[in-house]
Design brief:
single chain; mainly alpha; ABC transporter involved in vitamin B12 uptake, BtuC; 14 helices; about 70% helix
């Protein structure tokens, strides 16, 4: 990917550099919030449980309905944490790579591209392997990202944030329609339609989490190791090259890490949007724009946001669930409009 040049930084970039003690304080606060949300996710739902049942469920006891509910909610909570962390981190990396304040795996069509590729492989090629889902989803995510960036680069001015956002939104809508077209005539796969259209963490299991952990570990490592280079890219391509960075290699490597995270996440949770948009912007206000701090914070905050969204989705329509993808959309869509109006879609 090539840079989107600019001579102005977003408001978050003008924030005074945060002292290390302030960042450490926010780190502790974020970890504490995540721990509280994970506890709430285990205790709250269609059936609220007492603390004694929570501890018994954590110990593996399922002798009552409450304890069985806790046992079922634990993998769901863990899946929400790892998927939220992956999407938050991927969003921060995408914004750094493209220098686009609107970059998000959902808005740019990456997640829906991964979803469409899995649905197509299942419907027409008989894909049944969970690991195969992940590989196919990553391939679809990569192709969608390349397609959106190519379309957004056409015409005068190259890949401006507004053009990328419009190209991504149009592509995501088209892919969503194609998912519907593929799934609806197939009764054998129509049962999982909501997952590939909206995204959610229901039906989680330790087996599913274990299948994506190696891929997520690789994606996390690539993204976090790219943090220092992304700081250089934020200064502009020419200055980054003058500092010794191989700009094209840095962009390709960081984008690869984000694609791995998005593909693996979508393979098990569907196309959950807006986490990668909201989280990095909020984290910049807390810890500044240094990617060495921003990316880990985005992972923690993404885990917190998705866990909170899952708890809210379970509480607002009890005993039914509102899919977490709907909750994040209700949060992220107004935030997206706010960014467009306030920033006037300037580059990072």
């Amino acid at each position: 990917m090539t840079s989107v040049g600019t001579d102005r930084l977003p408001d978050a970039a003008l924030v005074v550099r945060r002292p290390a003690r302030v960042r450490i304080l926010w780190l502790l606060v974020t970890v504490l919030v995540l721990a509280v949300l994970m506890t709430a996710s285990v205790a709250l739902g269609s059936r609220d449980v007492a603390w004694s049942d929570v501890w018994a469920g954590l110990a593996g006891v399922d002798g009552s309905l409450e304890q069985a509910a806790v046992t079922k909610r634990i993998p769901r909570t863990l899946l929400a944490v790892v998927i939220g962390a992956a999407l938050g981190l991927a969003g921060g990396v995408m914004q750094g790579v493209t220098r686009n304040p609107l970059a998000d795996p959902g808005i740019l069509g990456v997640n829906m591209g991964a979803s469409l590729s899995v649905v197509t492989a299942v419907a027409f090629f008989g894909l049944t392997s969970p690991t195969g889902y992940i590989w196919v989803a990553m391939a679809g995510a990569a192709l969608a990202a390349a397609f959106v960036y190519t379309v957004g680069s056409l015409g005068r001015g190259g890949a401006t944030p507004l053009k990328l956002a419009l190209a991504g939104a149009a592509t995501s809508a088209a892919f969503a329609s194609l998912v519907s077209a593929v799934v609806l005539p197939r009764n054998d796969i129509a049962g999982g339609f909501r997952l590939w259209q909206i995204g959610g963490v229901g039906g989680a299991s330790y087996e599913r989490i274990g299948q994506i952990l190696p891929f997520l570990a690789v994606g996390f490592a690539i993204c976090l190791l790219s943090a220092r280079a992304l700081n250089s890219l934020a200064l502009g391509d020419e200055l980054a090259a003058g500092l010794g960075e191989r700009v094209a290699v840095v962009r390709a490597t960081a984008a690869l890490g984000a694609v791995v995270l998005c593909g693996a996440s979508t393979a098990v949770a569907g196309p959950i949007g807006f986490v990668g948009l909201v989280v990095p912007h909020a984290c910049r206000l807390l810890v500044g724009v240094d990617h060495r701090w921003l990316l880990p914070f985005s992972a923690l905050a993404g885990a917190s946001l998705l866990t909170a969204a899952d708890v809210v989705g379970r509480m607002v329509a009890r005993p039914a669930d509102v899919e977490v993808g709907i909750v994040t959309a209700l949060i992220g869509a107004p935030f997206f409009i706010h960014i467009v109006r306030r920033q006037k879609v300037r580059d990072l």
